[in-house]
Structure formats: structure tokens, C-alpha cells
Amino acid sequence: MYQNIPALLDIAHGHARTWFETLPARPVRASASSEQLRASLGGPLPENGAPPAAVIGALISAGNVGTVASAGPRYFGFVVGGSVPAALAADWLVSTWDQNACTFVHSPLASTIEQITGSWLRDLAGLPPAMSVGFVTGGHMANFTSLACARHAVLRKAGWDIEADGLNGAPPIDICVNEESHYTIVLALRLLGLGSARMRKIPADEQGRMRANCLATALRETSGPCIVCAQAGNVNTGAFDPLSNIADAAQERGAWLHVDGAFGLWAAAAPQHAHLVRGIERADSVASDAHKWLNVPYDCGLVLCADEAAHRSAMSLAAAYILATGAERDPHEFVPEESRRARAIPVYAALCSLGRRGVAELIERNCRQARRFCEALRAAGFAVLNEVVLNQVLVSFGAPEQTHATIAAIQQDGTCWCGATVWQGRTAMRISVSNWSTTDDDVERSIDAIIRCARSVAR
Ligand SMILES: *Cc1c(COP(=O)(O)O)cnc(C)c1O
Fold this sequence. Notes:
Layout: H1 5-22, H2 34-41, H3 52-66, H4 85-97, H5 108-125, E1 132-136, H6 139-157, H7 162-165, E2 174-178, H8 183-191, E3 199-202, H9 212-220, E4 226-231, H10 243-253, E5 256-260, E6 285-289, E7 301-305, H11 308-315, H12 344-379, E8 383-384, E9 392-396, H13 400-413, E10 419-423, E11 426-432, H14 440-458
Helix pairs in contact: 1-3, 2-3, 4-12, 5-12, 6-8, 6-11, 9-10, 12-14, 13-14
This protein binds pyridoxal-5'-phosphate.
Pyridoxal-5'-phosphate (PLP) binds at residues 79, 138-140, 182, 184, 233, 235, 260, 262-263, 289, 301.
């Protein structure tokens, strides 16, 4: 029955070996068009099955031309991150074991590793040990789950049972968000029936940091159930909201404080950057990603909640939180999923293999590399639009068309990959340094390529 599997995995393993040998040297961009990929993979649904080795062979051929080397050392697009070796290998085990991380009974291993990993993550991020943890698919779902907990808690305080009675007729909730919030906050509010147009957008400064005094003023205009959404790590600038001041304002008002720390949370693990996140330990909920800067494979987001009862009530059918002594933890009670991947296992492996010191070094190194990009590009005469406080660098090459043309030239060149963004009305190229395998030499090669492309476009 299973005797053919090892040979098949050997094929995958052989490809993985070549993939990693060539990853640092290959062009970062993909080389195939969608037409080419469709021609090699598409056509009608096969009537008869093909031999598994042929299927895997076809995928490998398509993968060689259709993938972006985003796992590699010179991909600086979005905020992506790669996978540290132990996390990748653990992910293979997860697929091999095919555990359902739904309940303890489904998989004692998955349930127990979630607990261990959850406590390590709280420790690493400087969050209170009492915070409950859920492993979701990504940052968006982490924001969604956090805000579902918030919705439960603020309405319960107002005497309303959202799970039983829904939103019809519920007391209105005031929601204050940083005007520079990530768009998944808006999407999460929409999914939760809280309405994207109902948010009060709190002004941010030129780095995208919420103005705490504006929040305090806005909160004074509210009286009912209230949620504040702050941010640790703006997706463009990397800037942090003044979390301590925001926590003061939220606490005084009795509002729920949610912090989106998709990638910024990990600054807490790095001694030179931990001050940026100070105050986050006072949040009611925190959303983060492990698949970004913690460098584990997709998909892995994290939701942490200071009110475990609210967390369970919002996510499970248990009306009230009663954990019988000695009862085992069922992971699905903390997430909007039932059957699910044992995604904590690669996180466990990443944390074990890096240790506290390794995570700190990863974060500090990437931040230092971001500062190097900033310094070199400024010295070459280009405008860096943000204060480089973390791992994000925004560069303008002149007029919007000039910046777009430069980005296209850099992507085509293939030495590295950076994407476009718009920051407070200005078109920019965003460099996000978030991969464990990026060396200082990769940074210098990328700087050379960027400057070379920018100058040739300017000519
Ligand atoms: C990436 C990101 C998200 C969304 O996370 P996904 O894992 O892509 O769903 C949310 N907030 C911030 C600040 C982010 O950078």
C-alpha cells in the first residue's frame, strides 16, 4: 500500500535539494507567463489518473519556471520571510503525519505542541502568561479572530449576548482604528458585521503612528461598547503606534485594545528594538504572523487574547468557559476552524532551532540590513521616505512613473525583488528585509543592482 511513497518522496527530496542549491543564484522573479504555465499544467480534468511520479515531475518542471524565489535571500517584496531549515523539515513531517489539530483526541501531539509553543511565543513577545493562544492561517485571520473576541467582550459588558442574539438590535460598537491600519483590519471588521464605514479613523503622523492625543479626544466622544485597533509595525514604514499611551487611553475609557503586530511583534524579541513594542503587554488581543518574520512556512498566524473566556466564547460552542481540572486542550476552541493543519509544529521547530538568542539575532540582523539599504540608497542620491526604525525601507526614485519604471527594471534584472507601494500619496519602492538567509553580501549585491537599474532608467 505505502511502498511507493518513499520513491515518490525521493523525487520531491531530489528537487528540494536542487532547489536550495540553486535558490541563491537564480533570478528572483518567475520566468514563466500564465499562458506557459497553463499550457504545461492545464487542459481538461484528466479522465484517468496519471502515475504519481509523472504528476510530481510535471509540478517540478512548472515549479522551476513559475515560482518566485521569495524563500531566498534577495526577495524583499511585501513582508514575506522564508523558512528556517528546522521549520521546513518539520513542515514535511506535518504533511507526513497528516494530523488533524482539531481536538486533543485527534492528535495529542498537535494539541500539546500548541500549548508549549504558545507559552514560548508569549515569553518571546513579552506577553502575559495568562494570554490564550490560537494558531490561525495568517495575520488576516488573526485580526478577524481577535476582533471577534473583542466584539464578544464589549457586548457582553453591555449586557448583550452576540453569540446567541447576533448583531440585529445590539448596542452599536464604536471602533477607533489608526488611519494607516493594515487593510485586513478593515476586512475583518466587514466580516464581523461591524462595517468598514463605521470605523473612526484616528489620524496618524508622517510615519504612520497613531496620534494618541487624537485617540483620547475621539474616545471622549464615545460612550458605549468600544474597540481600539492599534498597530505594531506599519506595513510600509515599519513604524509602531505609541502603545503605552494608547493603552492608557483605552484603559481609561474601558475600551478593548487590539494590536496588529503581524511582523512588528517580533521586535519584542530583539533587545535593541524591544522598546518599540512597549505597552503591548497591556493589549486585550494581539494578532501576529509566524510565516512572516519568524520564518516558518505558510500558513501560520497567531492570535493571543487576554480574556480566555471571551476567546473561547467567540470561537467555540461552549457558552461559558469551564475547563474541568485535568481536561486536555482542544485547539479548535481558539480559532474559527475545525479540521486544521498542525501548524504549530513548524513554529515549535523554528523556536527550538533558533532559541531566544537566534530570534533576537535574526531580527537585529535584518534591521541592520535595512539601515544599510537606507544609508547606501541615500548616499547614491535617492530619497528614503521613512525613518528606518525596523526592517522596512521606502525609496522614491523621483516622479511616480520614474519609480515604477525603476521597480520594473529591478524586477526584470532578477538580482533581487522589490515591489511598489504608495505611502501617504507618494509612490515608492518598498524593501522589506525579513528573511533568515539574507547575508550582508546579498544586501550589497542588491544595493548595486538597485542603483544600476535606477541610473539606467534615469538615463
Ligand atoms: C501582512 C499583514 C497582515 C495580514 O497578514 P496575512 O498573514 O497576510 O493574512 C496584517 N497586518 C499587517 C500589519 C501585516 O503586515
